[in-house]
From TrEMBL:
Keywords: NAD, Oxidoreductase
Residues in D-isomer specific 2-hydroxyacid dehydrogenase NAD-binding domain copies: 104-275
SUPFAM superfamilies: Formate/glycerate dehydrogenase catalytic domain-like (SSF52283), NAD(P)-binding Rossmann-fold domains (SSF51735)
Top-rank taxon: Bacteria
One protein family per Pfam: 2-Hacid_dh_C
Protein name, per record: Glyoxylate/hydroxypyruvate reductase A
Gene3D superfamilies reported for this sequence: NAD(P)-binding Rossmann-like Domain
Length: 310
């Protein structure tokens, strides 16, 4: 029997992905569903976002690859045998894009860039005082993207720390772990960056109680998921002056409603979920590496834990 790799049709640029992957894998034919002569031959599937029961159609599935870094919608929507590894395709392109966004947002805040954009619209020549010393940045979530962001910020002179839910070796010196250490983490952060996966434990974590633990004048950058943030709690913290501002790239409902108060709040920068991005050539190249490692019995990075959901 031939061996196949099957792409779900909602994979971004699925045809380019298929063609690239075909040149990088041996002993496999690559198809985009439903153009597949035999579902029994499929050993690897590549998916993105909601799928219903797509993997259940594949009786001999050995590996499931998920495009991009977010798997919350996938884990919630399908039933996957625990024997089948589910791997996020967090390639170097994604890591560089999101971490660059985080650095940009932090520097914009420190150099007061948003104020100058508004001043230009008013033809106002007025120099503001920059934040004299680069403030400490706390990264919530030290996966591939979070760690890359922390290392870039540190290289630019920002003091950095991290908060995670599980204890293991990290490439960051100051790391806080679990709910018991969340308060100690928060009080360190003049800028806090959320790069967490969205799970039952992290939903709504950016809330009034958390904001109150941050230093007065703290700044929020959210590139995780919209479900991490309680919108009204952020607006209240900004109105009270406890937070100085926020840069938000992800939202509970996308696209963000034109009536949403985030649009008109001068302390909030809104971007339309553009921090990351998928390039089929990069995703396919990374997929080929993961497939090779799996078929040769090597340890895989980025495997999703069905219990923790990341």
């Amino acid at each position: 029997m031939s061996r196949s790799i099957l792409l779900h049709p909602n994979v971004p640029d699925a045809i380019i992905f298929r063609d690239t992957l075909s040149t990088l894998t041996v002993n496999f034919e690559v198809f985009v569903w439903p153009d597949c002569p035999s579902l029994e031959s499929v050993e690897v599937a590549v998916i993105w976002q909601e799928l219903n029961d797509f993997p259940a159609m594949l009786p001999n599935l050995r590996l499931l690859l998920v495009c991009g870094s977010g798997v919350d919608s996938v884990i919630e929507s399908i039933s996957i045998p625990r024997s089948v590894p589910v791997v996020r395709l967090v390639d170097q392109y994604i890591r560089e894009r999101v971490s660059d966004y985080v650095v940009m947002a932090a520097l914009n805040h420190v150099r007061r860039w948003d104020h100058y954009v508004r001043h230009q619209k008013e033809a106002r020549w007025h120099r503001l005082t920059d934040i004299s010393v680069k403030p400490k940045v706390g990264i919530m979530g030290l996966g591939l993207i979070g760690e890359t962001s922390a290392l870039k910020l540190a290289a630019m002179g920002f003091a950095t720390c991290g908060w995670v839910r599980t204890r293991r070796s990290r490439n960051l010196t100051e790391v806080y772990v679990g709910d018991k250490e969340l308060h100690d983490f928060a009080r360190q952060c003049a800028i806090v960056v959320c790069v967490l996966p969205l799970t039952h434990q992290t939903r709504g974590i950016l809330c009034q109680q958390f904001f109150e633990r941050l230093p007065e004048g703290a700044y929020l950058i959210n590139v995780g998921r919209g479900g991490h943030l309680i919108d009204n709690d952020l607006l209240q913290a900004l109105d009270d002056g406890h937070l100085s501002g926020a840069c938000l790239d992800v939202f509970e409902s996308e696209p963000l409603s034109v009536q949403h108060p985030f649009w008109s709040n001068p302390k909030i920068t809104v971007t339309p979920h553009i921090a990351g991005g998928l390039r089929p050539e990069w995703q396919a190249t990374h997929a080929a590496e993961v497939i090779y490692d799996h078929m040769n019995g090597r340890t895989l990075n980025g495997v999703i834990n069905h219990v923790t959901q990341y």
